[in-house]
Amino acid sequence: MRRHHVIIALTGAGILALAGCGSDSDAPTADKPSASTVPSAAPSARPSADPSAARPDSGLPPSPAPAQRAGYLAALNKIDPEIVNGQDDKAVSRGLDQCQSMKGEKDPTKRVAGANQRFIGPNHPDGFGPVKSALIVAAVQTNLCPTY
User: Fold this and answer.
1) What percent of the chain has pLDDT over 90?
2) What is the CA radius of gyration of the chain?
3) Distance of CA 61 to the CA centre of its chain
4) Are 75 and 139 in contact (CB under 8 A)?
5) pLDDT-derived band of residue 60, with 50, 70 and 90 as boundaries?
6) What is the sign of the dihedral through the CA atoms of 118, 119, 122 and 123?
7) Residues 6+ apart with CB under 8 A from 75
8) 3-7, 71-75, 101-105, 112-116: segment of lowest average pLDDT
9) Long-range contact list for 83-89, CB < 8 A, 24+ apart?
């Protein structure tokens, strides 16, 4: 009988502990002050409402302008149509991710290896190989992040 009391007590304590884990997303906390207590910031210091905007601290360049995007996708399709494979947004996202990794990596061999891992297709689950990956890196750098 004593064993049942211990199990019930532990179960009750666990439930109470879990109940304390939930929070009201609108309620201010020590970690998240209410909107009225947040000091106003200059417009340039606020994060952009546009999720595609560049985040300088992350190394991501801004989303390409329509002409840049079209040129980038055309370059990838010229290398191998399977790189884009009808998924334009995914190809652009992979390109921006490649820019982010290239910003910190100056070794061309490692850049190509990264592109080979990042750019895959249905018939190329292990990448497009070093030659096409080098062309992908060139297309990314030319069209999405020329300063990287």
Assistant:
1) 55
2) 24
3) 12
4) yes
5) confident
6) negative
7) 139, 142, 143
8) 3-7
9) 83/119, 83/121, 83/128, 83/132, 83/136, 85/121, 85/122
Structure tokens at 40: 């106003």
Copy the structure tokens of residue 71: 């040129």
Are the C-beta atoms of residues 119 and 139 closer than 8 Å to each other?
A: no
Give the confidence band of 58 by pLDDT, cuts at 50, 70, 90: low
Whether this model's pTM surpasses 0.70: no
Identity of residue 3: R
The set of residues, in sequence order, having a beta carbon less than 8 Å from that of 91 and lying 6+ positions away, is: 72, 73, 76, 83, 84, 85
Q: Whole-angstrom Cα distance, residue 61 to residue 99?
A: 7
- What's the rounded Cα separation, in Å, for the pair 148 and 140? 10
Q: How far apart (Å, rounded) are the C-alpha atoms in residues 56 and 136?
A: 23
Those residues whose C-beta lies under 8 Å from the C-beta of residue 128, and which sit 6 or more positions away, are 79, 80, 82, 83, 116, 119, 120, 121, 136
